[in-house]
Each structure stands twice: as structure tokens, then as C-alpha cells.
Amino acid sequence: MANMNANHAQNAPAYFSAHDIHAYYGESYIVQGVSMNVHEGEILALLGRNGAGKTSTLRALARLDDPAVHKGEIWLDHQPLHTMKSYQAAQAGIALVPEDRRIIQGLTVEENIQLAQIEPPIGWSLERIYDLFPRLGERRKQEGTTLSGGEQQMLAIGRALSRDIKLLLLDEPYEGLAPVIVQEIEKTLHLIREQGITTIIVEQNAVAALNLADRALILDTGQVVFDGTAKEVLDNEELRHEYLAI
Ligand SMILES: Nc1ncnc2c1ncn2[C@@H]1O[C@H](COP(=O)(O)OP(=O)(O)OP(=O)(O)O)[C@@H](O)[C@H]1O
Ligand SMILES: [Mg+2]
């Protein structure tokens, strides 16, 4: 599918949108009215300081139990995710790759992927995933939890793609990885975008995320303080200093 971010109509409904999301951990009010629009094929960088609410926002969008969404609407390709539980939202095409990657112990690389494919909607085949990540193909029979950090991140992304997804949410995919591995994963995220997958990436490595992304959203204390192009953030020193410390 073509990358459509350059020529989408300004007023067309976004492929993915969140409107005024308010979410709580118990009594703690954390996500305070977040809205966003992401067009099909785009990469959005979701940035902000530690504790700004990035992970909480991703979890709310994926409809996990915590934080609980008390108000707001979430739409993915005309489907109302705000009415759904997490498993329904997953079936509707949202996939969260959490920071800790959740590779299943005792299973090989291949079994980790196959387990994700036991029920429809099935996405990329094993061959297609190994084409994207040759290292995973080489290690298909190795226990997943014995992979290096970078390889585990590749497995977590490959496993998400093994489902028929419409929106990929990545929480700090570069965390703890050597620069050369970050570059390798960056290249794959470009390839994934070329194949039409829409992505929201949360990263402490804001420069890397901004170099990859089309657009950026900056959060501070659970609120959106900037919504614009990635280039605008890279060019705005004040904004970078104030919210990103770069
Ligand atoms: N399970 C929880 N219960 C209560 N408060 C929580 C919980 N998880 C996170 N918080 C609080 O919500 C706020 C936002 O946290 P969140 O993890 O979303 O931030 P973040 O932007 O992802 O930060 P980081 O960059 O450190 O990962 C923080 O003040 C945090 O203490
Ligand atoms: Mg976080």
C-alpha cells in the first residue's frame, strides 16, 4: 500500500483518532484529555519526559484494564475501540509492543510467533517475518528468552506483525540497545511503514524517533503540549529543551 501521509485530505477522518481521552489508575488521574489523529501509513512519535504519561496513553489506547478510560473516544478504521475490551481491540487491529517485550519463556522464537497465530485474524507469515528480520530466521529454534535484547525486540515486533494489525504501538523499542542495533531496528521500521503499517512510537531517544516519524505529539503531565510535524520539533530548540531535554 502506498504511503499516503503526503496527500491525505486535510478534513478526511483520520485512520486512527483519539478524542479527549481521560484515564485513571484507581483515583490517580493520569491521562488528562489527550487527542490525536494518525493517518494511514504514518509514523507518529509520542514524546515527553519521564512520567509524562506516554506508556499510560498507549495502554489506554490499547484498552488495557489499567489505566481505565473514563471519558473519550478511540476510533481505528471506523471501529469504536472505546467500546471494547483489550482482546476485542486487539482483534480490531491494535497491537501494543510493551517495553518489557513479553517473550514467552520455554518457547522457541518460532513457537512465540506461532502462538500469536493460533486464531484469526492472522497477519504476516513466518517467511515474511524472517525476511524482515533475518536474525529471527537464523534463530528460529532458539528459546526466545535467550535472545539478545535487540533480537527480543525484533521478535516482539515480528510477533505483533504475525497478527493482521492496523496500528502498531511501540513503547521504547530502542531501550537498552546498542546504537548499531537501534539502526537495524530503525531500518526495519522504515520497511514496515513501506508495507502500509501505521505506527505510534514512544521513545526516550527522541532524536531517533523524530528522524523516523512523520509527526510528533509531545505530552506533559498527561496533556498534549505540542502536535505537529517531526521536523518542527527538530527545528525548535526551545521545545526540545523544555520537554525533551535534547
Ligand atoms: N499502575 C499505576 N498506578 C498509579 N500510577 C501510575 C501507574 N503507572 C504509572 N503511573 C503514574 O502515571 C504517570 C505517568 O506514567 P507513565 O508510565 O505513563 O509515564 P511515561 O511517560 O511512560 O514515563 P517513562 O518515560 O518514565 O516511561 C506517572 O506519574 C506514574 O507514576
Ligand atoms: Mg513509559
Any low-confidence stretches, pLDDT <50, length ≥5?
1-7
The average pLDDT is: 94
> Count of helices?
10
Outline type: globular
H/E series: EEEHEEHEHHHHEHEHEEHH
Name of the top-level CATH class: Alpha Beta
| Bound chemical compounds | adenosine-5'-triphosphate, magnesium ion
Radius of gyration: 17 Å
Helix content: 25-40%
- Using the 3D structure, state the CATH architecture: 3-Layer(aba) Sandwich
Return the CATH topology.
Rossmann fold
CATH superfamily: P-loop containing nucleotide triphosphate hydrolases
Strand content: 25-35%
Intertermini distance: 34 Å
Strand order of the largest sheet: 6-7-8-3-9-10
Domain ABC transporter: 16-246
Family: Belongs to the ABC transporter superfamily.
Protein name: ABC transporter ATP-binding protein
Pfam families: ABC_tran (PF00005)
